Amino acid sequence: MFNYGQKKKKWQKIKTEEEKILRKNHIDEKVIYELYQYDWQMFKKERSYQNHTCNYDLSNYPSKESSFMYENAQEFLDSFEDERLYHLLKNDSLLLQILYLKEKGFLYKEIAEILGLSEHQIYYRIKKMKKNKNND
């Protein structure tokens, strides 16, 4: 899982060290700024890629609900009859896993711990999904 806060701190530390070296070698501030901007864009693209393509194997987490009937996240996805929601979840594996775990009976706090996210991120993803679904 792409832990944004942790990765950003590490990235900033690396960039700070890199900028010190560049300044020590008398590299123009404009070049340093352009490198920073380029690297920042690459960091954000990597974050987006990781958030939309990471597949999580959560089948080893036992269901907290005795009535849970899906063997895995794909089976859970296939159960959706709303085509818009199906395509939304098919293209957003993180959101699919959040809903899968929620359906298994996990609390938002537990889901956040499992996926390495904050509770706020869990709430935000679900709120955004509801908003998108209602706008269609």
Molecular structure report:
The protein is mainly α and 136 residues long. It is built from seven helices and no strands. α1 (4-24) runs antiparallel to α2 and α6 (108-115) packs across α7. It is elongated, with a radius of gyration of 20 Å.
Outline of this structure?
The protein has 136 residues and is mostly helical. The chain contains seven helices and no strands.
Instruction: Give the ordered list of helices and strands.
Output: HHHHHHH
Based on Cα principal axes, name the global outline: elongated
Structural class: mainly alpha
* Overall number of strands: 0
Distance between the termini: 29 Å
Mean pLDDT over all positions: 79
Number of separate helices: 7
Low-confidence stretches: none
Estimated share of beta-strand residues: under 5%
- Gyration radius, in Å: 20 Å
Helix content class: over 70%
Describe the sheet with the most strands. Answer: none
Features:
single chain; 136 residues; mainly alpha; 71% helix
Q: What is the strand and helix layout of this fold?
A:
Layout: H1 4-24, H2 29-53, H3 73-78, H4 83-90, H5 93-103, H6 108-115, H7 119-135
